[in-house]
């Protein structure tokens, strides 16, 4: 059973989501939030597998909520469901930790497939978004560029360094003191950012950019000083 938290400030649309997901045998809506603060609090309390997140929330940006949720231990997969289809919103959501991005025009079958996909650790993007994700790499606004120039967060660089050094998800999770599911979700996001077909191709591109050249040992030493 995939436990889903709905984060949507419009009651009618939220009711429609709940009603549409109710008949799905392997999906259980365990909670609903109308604000970013409620989303973060309910994520910590309910421990859902997937947070279905709107970006337009009344108290704070959904991007802020995504960053807070993704930073937690045993973080759930974040699937953005929004009206915003501009490149800035798409890549900002990916940088904030979203594993998937759908537009609100998606039909129910597409939504259910996306929920199942991100819950399984995949990166899932709607047809109108996938082309832009594959065709353009995002960059962190105002941040120092990473060697690959795709806007990796600090945690993503850490994970990519360890991947390139040959470490598996379970070992990375133990070394970084996070849940394996958190690593699995972030690996999926890394694969999407690197426009790679799979983990192996992502590692090849990372090594070509200098990742994995002894940095894993240095990272581990620094974390234990």
SSE topology sketch:
Elements: E1 2-7, H1 11-21, E2 27-33, H2 36-46, E3 50-53, H3 62-70, E4 77-82, H4 87-96, E5 100-103, H5 108-119, E6 124-125, H6 127-135, H7 154-164, H8 169-176, H9 180-193, H10 199-208, H11 215-223
Parallel strand pairs: 1-2, 1-3, 3-4, 4-5, 5-6
Can you put this structure into words, describing what you see?
This protein is of the alpha/beta class. The protein folds into two domains: 2-135, Rossmann fold; 154-223, Winged helix-like DNA-binding domain superfamily/Winged helix DNA-binding domain (Arc Repressor Mutant, subunit A, Orthogonal Bundle), CATH 1.10.10. The chain is 51% helix and 13% strand. Strands 2-1-3-4-5-6 form a six-stranded parallel sheet, with helices on both faces. Helix 4 links the parallel strand 4 (77-82) and strand 5 (100-103). Helix 2 (36-46) packs parallel to helix 3 (62-70) and helix 7 packs across helix 10.
In CATH terms, the superfamily of the largest domain is Response regulator
Low-confidence stretches: 137-144, 220-225
**CATH fold naming of the largest domain:** Rossmann fold
Q: How far is the first residue's CA from the last residue's CA?
A: 41 Å
Strand order of the largest sheet: 2-1-3-4-5-6
- Which CATH class of the largest domain is shown? Alpha Beta
Into which percentage range does the β-strand content fall? Answer: 5-15%
User: How many β-strands, per DSSP?
Assistant: 6
Q: Can you tell me the number of structural domains?
A: 2
């Amino acid at each position: 059973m995939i436990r889903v938290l709905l984060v949507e400030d419009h009651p009618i649309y939220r009711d429609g989501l709940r009603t549409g997901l109710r008949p799905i045998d392997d999906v259980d809506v365990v909670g609903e939030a109308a604000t970013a603060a409620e989303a973060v609090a309910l994520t910590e309390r309910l421990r859902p597998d997937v947070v279905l997140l709107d970006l337009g929330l009344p108290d704070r940006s959904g991007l802020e909520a995504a960053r807070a949720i993704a930073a937690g231990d045993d973080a759930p997969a974040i699937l953005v469901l929004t009206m915003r289809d501009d490149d800035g919103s798409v890549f900002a959501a990916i940088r904030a930790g979203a594993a998937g991005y759908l537009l609100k025009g998606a039909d129910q079958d597409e939504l259910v497939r996306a929920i199942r996909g991100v819950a399984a650790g995949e990166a899932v993007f709607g047809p109108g978004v996938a082309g832009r994700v594959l065709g353009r790499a995002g960059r962190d606004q105002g941040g120092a560029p990473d060697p690959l120039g795709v806007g990796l967060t600090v945690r993503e660089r850490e994970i990519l360094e360890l991947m390139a050094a040959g470490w598996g998800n379970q070992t990375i999770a133990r070394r970084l003191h996070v849940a394996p599911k958190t690593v699995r979700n972030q690996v999926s996001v890394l694969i999407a950012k690197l426009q790679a077909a799979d983990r192996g191709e992502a590692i090849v591109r990372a090594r070509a950019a200098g990742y994995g050249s002894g940095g894993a040992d240095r990272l581990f030493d620094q974390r234990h000083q």
